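Closing statement on the iron/sulfur cluster sub-project.
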Amino acid sequence: MTKATVVAARSHQSLAESGVPSWMLAAPDALRLRSRLLEDASTSRCPSLLDRFVLSADDRRLRQVYAAGIVLFNFLRKHGLEVHLINTAEHATEEELAHLRESDHVLVSTSHALPADLIPLLEFVRRHNGTARVFMGGWTMFNLLSLVHGKASSLREFGLSPRWGQALLEKLRKAGADVIIGSRRGLDTALELIRQGGSGQVIFDDADAGPLSDPELFEMSSLPEYLQTGSSAIVTGVGCPFDCRFCTYKVLFERLHYLSVDEAVAVVEAMVRRRSVPLHHLRFADEVLNYPYGRLLEICRAMVDRGLVVDWSGFLRLGNVDDRLARAMRESGCSMVSIGLESGDVDMRTYMRKDFSQQAALDGIATLRRHGIIVAASLLVGYHGETPESIDNTRRLLQAARPDVARINVFSAQPPGTPGDRAPMDRDRAWAAAAWLLKNTPDQVFVTPFESFLDVFSALRALQVPAGDILAGAAEHSREWKRMIRDDVSF
Ligand code: B12
Ligand code: SF4
C-alpha cells in the first residue's frame, strides 16, 4: 500500500506556546516607544489575555490541530493510502518520524506557513526522508505561484516581486520540493500525481477553487485520540463580496464560493458527531458569514432541526444583522462573533470601503448582545487619512455601541504603491493614538493589540472555560493595560 505522511504546519501546536504576540513583543515600533507610552519604561513582557488562563506554556489541552492537515489526512485515507499526520513538524513524535521515514509521499501544507517557514519545513522532511516525493500545497504556495505568474497575490501587496517569488521557488526546488501546487484546494491534483507516479514538476492549478463539500474530510474519528481536540475550524464559503481597501482576502479569490446549506450543515455534523473526543467549540473560518443573509439563517435553523447545537464563533460584517438572524444564531449555539468596526469616523470607513452607517453599527452590536452573543470589535488605527478627530470619533462610537471587547490593530502594511491619495498616520503617532484610545475610552474592554480575541476565546471554550469567565478575565486584563499606559499619553 502506498504510504504517505501529511505535515500540517511547522510550529505552534498550541496558542499558549505561540506566546500570543503581545504589544511590546510583536511590534518593534512599540518596543521603541515604551518610554513614551508606558508608565514603566522597563516593562519587557506585556500581559496577554491567554496568560491569565494558562499556567503551563505547553498545555496540551490547548493543542491546535490544523484543519488543512485533517482534510488532507482524511482525503488520502479515503482514496486508499496508508496515511500518517504530523500536526506540527517541531513536535513530531518518534512514531510519527518513523512513519515519515518510510513514506513514499510527503504532503506539506503551507496554509499556516509563512514564506520564512518553507525551507525549514522542507529541511525537516528531507532530514528524515531523502527519497519520498514531496508535495507542497496550500495558501502560501497559492500566493507564491500567483506572484510568480503576475496574478493577484497578497505577497505582491506586501511589496514582494515576481522575481523574488521565482528565486524562492528555485530555493524550494533545491531544498527538495518535487511538486508545488498553487491552488485554493489542489487535493485532486495531488492525488492524480500520486497515482501517476513520475518525477517532479511545478504546477499552477486554479485560483477559482471553492471550499470542500465532502463532509467526510472533516471527520475526527479517523485521527489518533491525541489529535482530536475540543475545538476545530471549518470553512463553508470562501471569498468575500466586499472589497475593503486594507483587506488582502479580496486578491485571493476570483469569485465567491459557498457550500449549499445542506453541505455546510453536513460538514458541521461531521465535526460534531463523528469523533470520540467531544467538540466543545466550533469556529466558522468563513471570511464573512452573514452575507448572504438568508444562508446563515438557514444554516442556523438546520443546525437546530438536526440536533447540531454547538458552541460556535465566526466573523460577521455589520449591516446585515437583525433580531431574526441573531436569535437563530444564538439558538444554534453561537456564543461569540468578531466584527470589523475599524473606525468610528464615517469618512474613514467610507474611504476604507467599510461603508455601513453609524446606525447599522449601533443596531447590529446591540442586537447581537441582546441575544446573548458576545461581540468583539476589531479596530484599525492609523489608516490613510486618520486624524485626531477621526480617532476621537472612534472613541465616541465605542462608548455608544459598547461592544464587549475591542481590539486595536495598528496599521502597518505600507508597501510601495499602496492605493490611496491620503497619507497613513506616521507609525509612531499611530501607536501613540492606539495607546491614547485605550487609555481614554474608560468603560471599554480592550484586549492587547495583536491578540485575537476570537482565537483566545475558541481555545478557552475548547477547555470549557465559561464565556462569562473569559469576559471577566478580559475586563481585568484591560484594566491592567489601562494602568500601564501613561496618563499623559498623546499623539
Ligand atoms: C482557523 C485559522 C487559524 C486557527 C487554526 C485552527 C485550526 N484548528 O485549524 C489558528 C487560530 C490556530 C490560526 C493560527 C495562525 N494563523 Co491562521 N487562519 C485560520 C483561517 C481563518 C482558516 C484556516 C482553515 O482552517 N481553513 C480550512 C482548511 C480546510 O483549508 P486550508 O487551510 O485553506 O487548506 C485547504 C487548501 O489550502 C488545500 N491545502 C492545504 N495544504 C495543502 C497541501 C497540499 C500538498 C495540497 C495539495 C493542498 C493543500 O487543501 C485544504 C482543503 O481545501 C485562515 C484564513 C482562511 N480563511 O483560510 C487563517 C490563516 C491561514 N492564518 C494565517 C496566519 C498568519 C496565522 C498565524 C501565523 C497567526 C499568528 N500571528 O499567530 C498562526 C500560525 C499558526 C502556525 N502553525 O504557525 C494566515 C496565513 C497566511 C499565509 N499562509 O500566508 C491566514 C491565511 C489568515 C490571513 N489571511 O492572514 N489560524
Ligand atoms: S468584509 Fe472583511 S473579509 Fe470582506 S473585504 Fe472587508 S475586511 Fe475583508
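The chain has a mean pLDDT of 87. With this model delivered, the sub-project is considered complete and its resources will be redirected to Aim 3.
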